[in-house]
Amino acid sequence: MPTSTDGLLTVTDLSVHYSGQPALRSVNIAIAAGECVGIVGANGAGKSTLARTIAGLVRPAGGQVSSDGVTLTGMRADKVVRRGLAFVPEGRALFTRLTVLDNLLLGGYTMPETSEATALDHLGRLFPELVERKLLRAGQLSGGQQQMLAIARALMSRPRLLILDEPTMGLAPTIISRLAIALTELREQEGLGVLVLDQRRTLAERLNARGYILRGGRIVASVTQGQWDDPGLAQHYMADTD
Ligand SMILES: Nc1ncnc2c1ncn2[C@@H]1O[C@H](COP(=O)(O)OP(=O)(O)OP(=O)(O)O)[C@@H](O)[C@H]1O
Ligand SMILES: [Mg+2]
Questions:
Q1: What is the pLDDT of residue 112?
Q2: How far is the CA of 23 from the centre of ligand 1 (A)?
């Protein structure tokens, strides 16, 4: 009999405060293995706070985060990565003065014996155009290429869940489609679960995700697959948060 904490990711009654001000209020979400979930919300809705708390970078005031029945709440960020959760932060956080290849190798720090050859093989299957740019500094890549590299770097830890904070920021629709295709392939071929937190619904829609609307630190609506363009939902994330 599965329990409520059996899923790939289970977030229960999660609350986060900054200097006493609530940023997340009793958030509940669940992701099953290989599932694709979108969380859409406006500026300040709490998307990054939620992503960073799941990733072990923010300590919650209350509630719990677990994965496959193991409690992640309070676990150090590197331990969370070892549990199979990989996080691509807002703004990508690449080492812009290091090469594409070195950024990739750093993403594999939790895996023993990550070689240059395996890193490049991995990159070639995901985003081949980055292989020929392997010796460029990450800061010399276009915005779309940087997002691809950030995703490829996170995938070096062989996660079961990839958490993407604001991945479509500044990207052209064609690049968003590329990302959707790559993520869908990983999901179908390797059972990768994906959690996308974004201001726009575009990527969640392209991934055929189900999901949630976050507003003022609360989940205010659930979204079923194919329902992202429901006009009733847009009011929640187009409007300013309370
Ligand atoms: N380090 C911090 N210290 C104090 N307040 C913070 C901090 N980080 C976020 N906040 C506040 O918490 C709330 C949620 O912020 P958060 O960054 O999680 O929102 P977001 O949905 O990611 O927004 P955006 O779309 O602009 O990235 C906001 O009111 C913000 O001002
Ligand atoms: Mg954010």
A1: 67
A2: 7
Residue ranges for the chain with pLDDT beneath 70: 1-6, 110-112, 237-242
pLDDT at 168: 92
Q: What is the CA radius of gyration of the chain?
A: 17
- List the Cα angle 89/186/119 in 5-degree steps: 70
CA angle 39, 79, 144 (to 5 degrees): 45
Classify residue 17 by burial, with Cβ atoms within 10 Å: 0-12, 13-18, 19+.
middle
Model-wide pTM > 0.90: yes
Q: Are 219 and 28 in contact (CB under 8 A)?
A: yes
| Residue nearest (by alpha carbon) to ligand 1 atom 16 | 46
Q: Are 201 and 190 in contact, with CB atoms under 8 Å apart?
A: no
CATH fold of the domain at 1-84+161-242: Rossmann fold (3.40.50)
Domain ranges of the chain: 1-84+161-242, 94-158
Q: Is 44 in the pocket of ligand 1 (CB under 6 A)?
A: yes
CA distance 135 to 240: 43
- Starting from the CA of residue 216, give the closest ligand: 1
